[in-house]
Amino acid sequence: MARRKKVYEGKAKILFEGPEPGTLIQYFKDESDETESRPDGRGVLNNRLSEFFMSGLNSVGVPTHFIRRINMREQLVRMAEMLPVEVMVRNFAATGMTQRLGIPEGTALPRPIVEYYFKDDALDNPLVSEEHIVAFGWANQQDLDDIVALVLRVNDFLSGTMLGVGVRLADFRLEVGRIWEGDFMRLILADEITPDNCTLWDMRGLDAEGNQRDPSPLPDMSTELARRLGVLPSNVTHTTKPTLIN
Which of 69, 73, 93, 111 could form a disulfide with 107 if both were Cys (CB 3.0 to 4.6 A apart)? Predict the structure, then answer.
């Protein structure tokens, strides 16, 4: 890695120049935006999970930056001009919505709600409106309409996939970028899709009366989700470093 030119480094990932123009190599670290210390191998798990979800989205016609996985920690992705906002899709009241509005956690929303957050760690990534985004030139109204259509398709795919393995997708964050194909610009899903940017609840099991138990957080989300989806061997744990197949 030392010989490659670093383009960007965050808490969870490093981006290097790719082997061809218009590409990048995305390297997954064990750290995340939520915590400084993560179990050994978390970056390997997140690489595999993001590959699983991005490949699935590509296969159903949702445009993403993902090209292919290179090795256990790296992916080849398309370079995109990133919008300075994160897009949050909420299906159930959780995390920030519960704190801001006092809605009980776990409340089903009448429809998916799309929110925007300005990407600035110094400002703690504040919630912004569509009017802010258009007024400051971060995107135009057509872009926003296209973003909503894009993320709702992603929401349908992720919600169905996770529900199939007993996981409820309460909310998730996405990043969107622009790419140009000749004179034509289009928006694509970029960054990653991993448990680090989702709120996931375990929906498996019944209570003593045979009813579905209340949703609860998944223990060690990346490992458990990867196991349920069949992305990794079922014996992978973080008691030792994961043994993974390239």
Answer: 93
pLDDT, tens only, 103-121: 999 999 999 999 999 999 9
Q: What is the pLDDT of residues 180-224, one digit of tens each?
A: 988 889 999 999 999 999 999 998 764 555 455 566 666 677 888
| CATH level 2 (architecture), domain 81-202 | 2-Layer Sandwich (3.30)
- The strand pairing partners of 16, in sequence order, are 6, 25
User: What's this model's pTM, rounded to 2 decimal places?
Assistant: 0.86
2.40.50.140, 3.30.200.20, 3.40.50.2000, 1.10.357.10: which CATH number matches 6-79?
A: 3.30.200.20
Q: Who contacts 122 (Cβ-Cβ below 8 Å, separation ≥6)?
A: none
Beta bridge partners of 190: 175
d(CA 88, CA 173): 4
Instruction: Give me the residues paired with residue 17 across strands.
Output: 24
Within its chain, how far is the Cα of 98 from the centroid? 21
Tokens for 21?
């123009």
